[in-house]
Amino acid sequence: MSRLAVLGGDPACTTSFPRWPQWGAREEERLKEALESGYWGLDSVLIREWEERFARLQGARFAASVANGTISLSLALRARGIGRGDEVIVPSYTFMATAAAVLWIQAIPVFADIDPGTFNLDPASIRVNLTPRTRAIIPVHIGGCPCDMDSMVEIAREHNLALIEDAAQAHGAMWNGKGIGAIGDIGSFSFQSSKNLPAGEGGMLVTDSREFWEIFTSLKNCGRVPGGAEYEHHTLGTNARMSAFAAAVLLAQAERFEEQFQQRERNWAYLKSALADVPGIALQERDARVDCHALHLLIFRYEPEGFRGLSREEFMRALSGEGVPCRAGYRPLHQERGFLEDSRNFLAGLALPDYASLSLPVTEKVCSETSVWVRQNALLGDTTRHVEEIAQAIRKISRFSGELAKGTAASV
Fold it and tell me: Both 221 and 151 in a single domain?
């Protein structure tokens, strides 16, 4: 085993990971089909075909395509009657859109803490944050790992709360026999370029309720009523429709989705076994009731103590040097300047939580010390070459961590 690349050795990874997104002749064929149909948006049979196919994938009765996976959350909240002054419990360990969607309808985001192993919302923290103004919970399936949906459903039922799943990263994931997104009232998905089903941009709302489906189908289509007249508007909606071109790309992407899904899972299992005896490294935990993890992200829990005190930043620098691009992931959303400033603007006149002094110890530790992300396409490579090289890179850092930590300390 050569020295670390950052110390002058050769990198462990000798080839780059598979590109993402991937495409081929089928995308070209379906895009041509959309182009030649003459229906590039409204009335496209490709959009209807994609909605039906995605509903089947997640095990939901209804699906409505939208322009992206950000506006979908706001539409879902509006469909459940959430509005000004209502409190919505969300994680701080998530993409900005989860809380921004709440602000856009002038509801109040209330941040709960996460589980240190799964990185998902901690049901106990949800209960602590319930108030008489709580109207909804938005659990986020981080990296495609299903939340404890049994607990989420129980809390929602006990307190008569809307349950909206932020499943932007969880295509194909399943919890205890049910598809993610179809367990709560409404599930929200994204098809942005990095997602496991990408179309550049796009989103989907799924539900088992025809009532909710009719509401957000109307909201996304300028307030028109499904089956109604062209200029018949029953509510103040918006144009959040998906294009036929996005649907065409997604229909082609879906043809290779299952194969890719299984490949990621095989490689994840191999990597978990290969790293089982490396102290200080643990892959994102799964509850026993998780049937399928979407593996949109390969998330490690990094503990400096297992690497002779080497900081996470130095670990990531060494891992990147070995040819494994990585990053720290989210920062605590409740500490983000943009959120703090805009929450005061959007919610002027309302009594808000003191976000600046909020303490979420698990979230803060995960963001500052322990989470390491590798993109999902790293799990699409050859098991005995690409994935084994990831394991070798981490083992190499473990072996030389003392030398690297000593050098870092000496330079301070």
Answer: yes
